[in-house]
Amino acid sequence: LAERTNLAGVQHILLVLSGKGGVGKSTLSTELALALRNAGKRVGILDVDLCGPSIPRMLRVQDSAVHQCDSGWVPVFVGQDKAIALMSIGFLLERSDDAVVWRGPKKNALIKQFVTDVAWGDLDFLIVDTPPGTSDEHISTVEALRPHQLLGAILVTTPQ
């Protein structure tokens, strides 16, 4: 029931994925969020790249903290206009350059918690930045988002 509540105000969910690392998923997710915000949309980014959470640094909010509210975690709001909501494991680490060495079940539980326990509020778009490859994290993300409206996916590739 909490799942429905926290994502109920999200109109469209967009996954950003790739088969390999270093192709620009996080950059594309960030630029897409900024472009949508500049077009007057309410935007959220869910950074489920657990091993390399770079979006907080890209948006210059890496020193921010996540707080709790009655309906779960409050995302970090970016910019003077606070128009982009962001949730990332980068906010939960002791230091932003700490490595995350977790096995599948713990990663999958955190992804499910990010989907169910973040109080997104009303958003036009939620952009989900995924880790490289085709791992458990992708399956967990899609499974957790299954009850909700998925707009689609952007597959980032290289010319090779």
From TrEMBL:
Matches recorded under Pfam families: ParA
Gene Ontology MF, one: metal ion binding
Alphabetical list of PROSITE patterns matching this protein: MRP
Superkingdom, natural source: Eukaryota
Gene3D superfamilies per the UniProt record, alphabetical: P-loop containing nucleotide triphosphate hydrolases
Cellular component terms (Gene Ontology): cytosol
UniProt keyword Nucleotide-binding present: yes
Record-given protein name: NUBP2 factor
Organism, as annotated: Sylvia borin (Garden warbler)
